[in-house]
């Protein structure tokens, strides 16, 4: 594996600032010369808390363009190699080892516990926890486990090790890295870690890092409880989880909403979740059961990226009462289902939803999602739902997101996108909503976009698709009131030759249901079974799409 030099990020920032100042007023040729000579350019802050809302799209693009080292660390891989593979000089990192073979490797290391190698970095000043997991202070969870527990973990034998893991976290939380605000990292070598009472961090600055998705597994042995909880006291900042998989114990099925894979409490702010997966239930070594909620976020200001979910009983990602969440590069499948090793999926919950922005206890605001795909969920791919005029979903932006083949749970209210009630000042750009008509179990009234009042107003949908749905393409629904002040611009509601809406028998391109203050501008509305525009009886409705006959 390629070695990498550990760099003082504070020094890098100083170099960037100096390079920026040196380049001010210079020509483009001069700036190019600086870059070719190894110079650097200044990058704006990456914390959404310090960036104006109108600039957050640029912030998101900038984050996604960062080099690999700026979004993740590879120290875990090197530690795993030293601890398990290189000790014997022949075992590949992440290999499944027998207990006997592992104990042999332990002997080659010269003792009972695997310690961090000499190259482990020391504390450094100037690190920004929002840029990457900390390299300044690292601990190995194996140092707190007996050789027998280590062997069980690596061989895949499920033995509860919650107490030992939480002891390691307690030690990390009392370290100078936490008290000085630098943050510290607890590394999990490859293997299966069973927790029957939950892994819990009660202070900010704690980062849990595995050896990679599909290598390190945290196995939840609880019916009602979170496998991992980062829920510190008030005013805590920094923390995160990366490079691991979370699944349910094969002997404990999820039955309640409290069954959660990863929980971020409301008192933790400015955290990072990166490269975390929830694998297929019933496949290989994995559990036959999914968790009820895979990830629940209640803390503000976070980067959540590279998430993979292959199943879930209730909700894939629940954002509940959080502000300033950047979600990117995420794929979510089969929420509402168990996924067996072979044969069809088993429906567990007709109301399964991929991404849920649900304000049940406080308002959500500034949730930005980029390149998120939700497929084969039983009710909604994406769902935004406020709770009252006080608890709203406010100022959320979804860009380049996909919801497809949703609604197999059979609910007549199913939709690719479920929006409302109390969704305000939100924007949806270049998004996709298609139910793949004829898919198993989908109701004949399932819509592409189901937009519900009351309190849902001042929202914009641009350049988005609603095609090939069983029911309406864009359906406005009266539920305690109708949505209003909605602008749809350049959208595709139905498509030739055979991808119109109403594939279940009836359906409009736009079903306004008597709503008022609606603007439909540009785009196409074509080939829909019941007609292009339906129930246009409201006031202040402007319609100027390119409309073609069915």
Helix content: 10-25%
Task: Please report the total strand number as a whole number.
Answer: 38
Biggest sheet strand order reads: 4-7-10-13-15-19-21-25-29-32-35-37
Portion in strands: 25-35%
Q: What is the CATH third-level topology name of the domain at 350-550?
A: Pectate Lyase C-like
Q: Ranges with pLDDT <50 over ≥5 residues?
A: 1-7, 19-132
Number of helices: 9
Structural classification: alpha/beta
Question: How far from one another are the termini?
Answer: 60 Å
User: Rough shape?
Assistant: elongated
Describe the oligomeric state of these chains in a short phrase.
single chain
Radius of gyration: 25 Å
What would your notes on this structure say?
Helix 6 (99-109) crosses helix 7 (147-155). A hairpin with a 7-residue loop joins strand 17 (337-338) and strand 18 (346-347). With 550 residues, the protein is α/β, with parallel strands linked by helices. Among the domains are: 8-41; 350-550, Single-stranded right-handed beta-helix, Pectin lyase-like (Pectate Lyase C-like, 3 Solenoid). The N and C termini lie far apart (60 Å). The protein has a twelve-stranded parallel β-sheet with strand order 4-7-10-13-15-19-21-25-29-32-35-37. It has a ten-stranded parallel β-barrel with strand order 20-23-27-30-33-36-34-31-28-24.
List keywords for this structure.
550 residues; alpha/beta; Pectate Lyase C-like; 12-stranded parallel sheet; 33% strand; elongated; disordered N terminus
């Amino acid at each position: 594996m390629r070695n990498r030099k550990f760099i003082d990020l504070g020094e890098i920032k100083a170099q960037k600032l100096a390079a920026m100042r040196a380049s001010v007023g210079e020509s483009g040729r001069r700036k190019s010369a600086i870059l070719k000579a190894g110079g650097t350019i200044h990058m704006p802050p990456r914390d959404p808390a310090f960036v104006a809302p109108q600039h957050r799209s640029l912030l998101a693009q900038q984050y996604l363009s960062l080099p690999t080292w700026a979004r993740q660390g590879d120290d875990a891989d090197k530690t795993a190699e030293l601890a398990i593979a290189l000790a014997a000089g022949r075992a590949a990192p992440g290999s499944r080892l027998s207990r006997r073979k592992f104990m042999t490797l332990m002997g080659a290391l010269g003792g009972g516990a695997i310690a961090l190698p000499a190259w482990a970095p020391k504390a450094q000043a100037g690190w920004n926890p929002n840029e990457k997991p900390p390299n300044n202070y690292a601990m190995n969870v194996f140092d707190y486990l007996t050789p027998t527990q280590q062997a069980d973990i690596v061989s895949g034998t499920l033995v509860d090790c919650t107490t030992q893991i939480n002891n390691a976290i307690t030690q990390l939380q009392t370290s100078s890295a936490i008290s000085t605000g630098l943050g510290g990292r607890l590394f999990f070598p490859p293997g299966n870690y069973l927790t029957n009472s939950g892994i819990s961090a009660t202070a900010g600055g704690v980062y849990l890092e595995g050896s990679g998705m599909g290598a390190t597994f945290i196995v939840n042995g609880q019916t009602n409880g979170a496998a991992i909880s980062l829920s510190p006291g008030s005013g805590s900042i920094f923390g995160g989880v990366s490079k691991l998989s979370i699944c349910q114990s094969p002997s404990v099925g999820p039955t309640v909403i409290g069954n959660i894979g990863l929980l971020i409490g409301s008192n933790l702010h400015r955290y990072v979740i990166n490269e975390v997966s929830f694998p297929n239930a019933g496949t290989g070594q994995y559990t036959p059961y999914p968790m009820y909620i895979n990830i629940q976020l209640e803390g503000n200001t976070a980067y959540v990226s590279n998430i993979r979910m292959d199943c879930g009983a209730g909700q894939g990602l629940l954002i509940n009462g959080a502000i300033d969440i950047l979600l990117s590069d995420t794929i979510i499948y089969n929420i509402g289902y168990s996924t067996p090793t072979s044969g069809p999926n088993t429906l567990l919950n007709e109301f399964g939803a991929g991404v849920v922005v649900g304000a049940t206890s406080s308002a959500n605001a500034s949730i930005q999602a980029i390149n998120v795909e939700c497929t084969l969920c039983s009710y909604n791919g994406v769902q935004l739902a406020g709770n009252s005029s006080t608890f709203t979903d406010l100022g959320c932006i979804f860009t380049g997101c996909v919801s497809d083949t949703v609604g197999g749970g059979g609910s007549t209210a199913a939709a690719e996108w479920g929006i409302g009630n109390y969704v305000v000042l939100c924007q949806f750009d270049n998004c996709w909503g298609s139910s793949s008509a004829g898919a198993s179990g989908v109701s004949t009234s399932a819509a592409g976009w189901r937009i519900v009042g009351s309190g849902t107003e001042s929202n914009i949908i641009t350049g988005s698709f609603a095609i090939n749905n069983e029911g309406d393409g864009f359906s406005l629904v009266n539920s305690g009131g109708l949505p209003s002040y909605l602008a749809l611009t350049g959208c595709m509601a139905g498509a030739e030759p055979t991808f119109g809406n109403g594939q279940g028998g009836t359906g409009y391109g736009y079903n306004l249901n008597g709503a008022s203050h609606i603007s439909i501008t540009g785009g196409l509305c074509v080939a829909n079974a019941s007609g292009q525009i339906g129930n246009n009886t409201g006031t202040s409705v402007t319609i100027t799409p390119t409309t073609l006959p069915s």
